[in-house]
């Protein structure tokens, strides 16, 4: 093979940079749903409505009643690395919002047709920004934001080809909302597909306490699961682990009902998965998969969430400490009802 002729080094155009970055953030429609719901929650929404067409490929619209975006910031919101959530490295150390990288909207805008529609408290009406043309027009809406994303991946057909059937993509979108719903019982969620309401989880009135969490778990995963699980509530130093752990009888063939959160963020983490699994070591046999929803609250300075653009991975400063706490939390929860039953049987 002849060597390629050398070409001069050039900076890539902005749009291409965004499209490349989008590959990391947006794998499929569900990735867009996750990012937009993250944004709605960061804006303080109490109700989030997701509307989909063709499994999200034709349309994803996420509507919230949050703080809204001021008119003159709408265009900025679409720029790369533009965020209202952090402004210094110090902020990053203790980030309390779902987002902070300022990448999602820019990424989505580079690979789909997007519009931002928003109204803040002080506005007399909403403004709608067309992501492609930059056109801004007044529209009617109450306070909050609606982001519409159409024809995902139209510009990147290679990615579009990797998409599965609409039904499969829809299932992933629902799963993305479910992950948010399980950690925010104080927020109402609704999912529509092709004009039909397919899921609706009402907000608890008031606090996101254990009762509210139990009710939401029952709404999202079913009342049988709630009945077949035990409460987890365990402290170790500054670590607090709460949630529910399914009894061994509730275990499943697939690991599709294992939800783990760190400081309110859904994560997929080997340390947490392994810790939870090891708590079932003596009571679960073969390849049965436990069911659980576990919430780890910890000092944000002891966990790094800036590991991957999707923020689904985290790195713990002391993973042994976290592993032990989660394992003990689940072990104790599983032991408690058996201990009580044994005590009852004793006399
Ligand atoms: P990030 O969430 O990391 O800040 P995004 O690209 O997702 O980056 O969003 C950019 C900015 O747009 C956010 O920082 C926020 O100020 C604003 N924004 C996006 N979605 C919403 C929303 N639903 N409600 C209010 N503001 C929003
Ligand atoms: Mg965001």
Set down the secondary structure blueprint.
Layout (H helix, E strand, L loop, with lengths): L13 H12 L3 H14 L4 E7 L5 E6 L9 H4 L11 H5 L10 H8 L1 E7 L6 E5 L5 E4 L4 E7 L6 H5 L4 H16 L6 E6 L2 E6 L8 H12 L1 H5 L1 E8 L2 E8 L11 E5 L2 E3 L2 H10 L12 E6 L5 E2 L10 E2 L2 H27 L2
Parallel strand pairs: 1-7, 11-13
Antiparallel strand pairs: 1-2, 2-6, 3-4, 3-6, 4-5, 7-8, 9-10, 10-13, 11-12, 14-15
Helix pairs in contact: 1-5, 2-7, 10-11
Bound molecules: adenosine-5'-diphosphate and magnesium ion (MG).
- Work out the number of β strands: 15
Globular, elongated, flat, extended or rod-shaped: what is the shape?
Answer: globular
**Strand adjacency order, main sheet:** 5-4-3-6-2-1-7-8
Q: Helix/strand-derived class?
A: alpha+beta
Would you identify the CATH architecture of the largest domain? 2-Layer Sandwich
CATH H level, superfamily name of the largest domain: Histidine kinase-like ATPase, C-terminal domain
Share of helical residues: 25-40%
Q: What is the rounded distance between the termini? A: 86 Å
Low-confidence stretches: none
Average pLDDT level: 93
Could you give the order of the helices and strands? HHEEHHHEEEEHHEEHHEEEEHEEEH
Number of helices: 11
Question: Can you give a write-up of this model?
Answer:
- With 347 residues, the protein is of the alpha+beta class.
- It has two domains: 14-201, Heat Shock Protein 90 (2-Layer Sandwich), CATH 3.30.565.10; 222-345, Ribosomal Protein S5, domain 2.
- It is 34% helix and 24% strand.
- It has eleven helices and 15 strands.
- It has helices at residues 14-25, 29-42, 74-77, 89-93, 104-111, 157-161, 166-181, 210-221, 223-227, 270-279, 319-345; strands spanning 47-53, 59-64, 113-119, 126-130, 136-139, 144-150, 188-193, 196-201, 229-236, 239-246, 258-262, 265-267, 292-297, 303-304, 315-316.
- An eight-stranded mixed beta sheet has the order 5-4-3-6-2-1-7-8. Strands 9-10-13-11-12 form a five-stranded mixed beta sheet, with helices on both faces.
- Strand 1 and strand 2 form a beta hairpin.
- The chain is globular, with a radius of gyration of 22 Å.
- Bound molecules: adenosine-5'-diphosphate (ADP) and magnesium ion (MG).
- Magnesium ion binds at residues 35, 38-39, 99, 104.
- Residues 35, 39-40, 43, 64, 66-69, 77, 82-85, 99-106, 145 line the site of adenosine-5'-diphosphate (ADP).
């Amino acid at each position: 093979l002849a060597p390629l002729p050398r070409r001069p080094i050039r900076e890539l155009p902005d749009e291409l940079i965004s499209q490349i970055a989008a590959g990391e953030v947006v794998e499929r429609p569900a990735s867009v749903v996750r990012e937009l719901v993250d944004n709605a929650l960061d804006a303080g929404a109490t109700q989030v409505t997701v509307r989909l067409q063709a499994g999200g490929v034709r349309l994803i619209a996420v509507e919230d009643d949050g703080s809204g975006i001021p008119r003159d910031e709408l265009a900025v919101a679409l720029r790369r690395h533009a965020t209202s959530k952090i402004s210094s490295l110090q902020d990053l150390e203790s980030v309390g919002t779902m987002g902070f990288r300022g990448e999602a909207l820019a990424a989505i805008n580079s690979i789909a047709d997007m519009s931002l529609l928003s109204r803040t408290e002080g506005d007399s009406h909403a403004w709608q920004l067309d992501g492609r043309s930059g056109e801004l027009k007044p529209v009617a809406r109450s306070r909050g934001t609606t982001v519409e994303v159409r024809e995902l991946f139209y510009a990147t057909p290679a990615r579009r080809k990797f998409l599965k059937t609409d039904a499969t993509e829809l299932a992933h979108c629902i799963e993305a909302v479910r992950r948010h719903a399980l950690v925010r019982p104080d927020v109402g969620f609704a999912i529509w597909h092709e004009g039909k309401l397919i899921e609706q989880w009402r907000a608890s009135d008031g606090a996101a306490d254990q009762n509210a969490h139990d009710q939401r778990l029952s709404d999202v995963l079913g009342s049988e699961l709630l009945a077949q699980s035990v409460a987890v509530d365990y402290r170790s130093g500054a670590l607090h682990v709460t949630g529910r752990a399914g009894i061994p009888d509730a275990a499943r063939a697939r690991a599709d009902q294992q939800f783990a959160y760190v400081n309110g963020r859904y994560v997929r983490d080997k340390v947490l998965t392994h810790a939870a699994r090891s708590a079932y070591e003596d009571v679960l046999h073969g390849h049965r998969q436990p069911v659980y929803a576990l919430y780890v609250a910890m000092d944000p300075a002891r966990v790094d969430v800036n590991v991957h653009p999707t923020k689904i991975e985290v790195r713990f400063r002391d993973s042994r400490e976290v592993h032990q706490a989660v394992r003990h939390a689940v072990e104790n929860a599983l032991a408690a009802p058996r201990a009580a039953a044994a005590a009852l049987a004793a006399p």
